[in-house]
Model the fold of this input.
Amino acid sequence: MNVKTSKTLLLIACVSFLLPGAAQAKSNRPTSPWPQVVAKTKSAECAQILKAAKLVFDGKSPDLNEDAEPAIKGNVGLVLAPKGRAVDVAGSQSFWFDEKFIETNKEGPEGIPTVYWQKDPEKGGRFLVGQKHMNWEGDWYDMYFVNADIKPEKLSELVSGSQQESQAEMKTIPEGTLIYRNLWHRPWLYRNAQSNQIIAVNPLADWGNSKSGALPEWAIYGPADGAKVKLLGTIRFCPKVEPLKLLPAGPLREMAMVLDKIIGIPKDDEGTFRATPRLRSEAALAWTNLLLRPWAMDEPSNSRADVEAGLKRWAKGSPGFAQQYAKLKSMYPQAEQALSAYYQTSGKMPAAAAKHLAKESLDIAYRSNFKF
Done:
């Protein structure tokens, strides 16, 4: 090898080490065809939201709808978005927003909701977002497209007046259009710099929504004449199937189904805490991210030793429990191999990287099924 060639290889090695997007770094993350936009016609607005969705999808937050930082830094026109995790901001201002385009009443007196509205109306209306305290679990949120001539103080009255009303979506009301109200998830607002229009994203992710799928879709709305809105398209982050059916058939899915049976069905009313449905929801998200976004999996509170100790105690409860635990132990190595193979084929990862990622991510998904 001559000196010139040696220097060239050294330079390539240094660049590969320093650049996070280099091929060496990419090989440690599976590739994905998601997210995708579904729309009848192509539009600049849907393309803009798809770009934002890719940034969020590639982010590190397990929940796609609680981490606006990638979209804020990505300069994709975001003007209002969730600020922190919903469980951490209940009862306080829970939105980041751009004061150039969004106004707010800040936090009003006790009992008065916080409202955020689009400064400059378009097509006779403006988007309105409302936040109101529900209970210890968190806050409720509303999204409207209201008539442009409604005074700011009336916007607050509109949101507070819906406190006791039932949940509804896409309904014409005297003030304009109700997109949704009294739900747990927070909307996002973007601005298209070319058209100067505000675009609303409704992440169809309300807690406990059985129709939300493995990773809930984003519905994209734009303004229409007469203070109405029109659906421009949707963003899909994965196939429309239940989380466990998203897993490839074979030992990985079979093990996940055994774990789901172990979670079980509560014998008694769990009240608003709903410990079992919450755990099942967390496990479903873990399985989904295991397959599609393993870099974004949340570390469970239980260590592997905690989980195994808890399962051993549980297995002593009946012969059936003992059989399930034995089956679980025998299936785990097969499931890990299946996951590694999946990362290699579908994720196009090198064998060594896929094996390492499968070992780490399956351990997290496994532990996410328990609270000991």
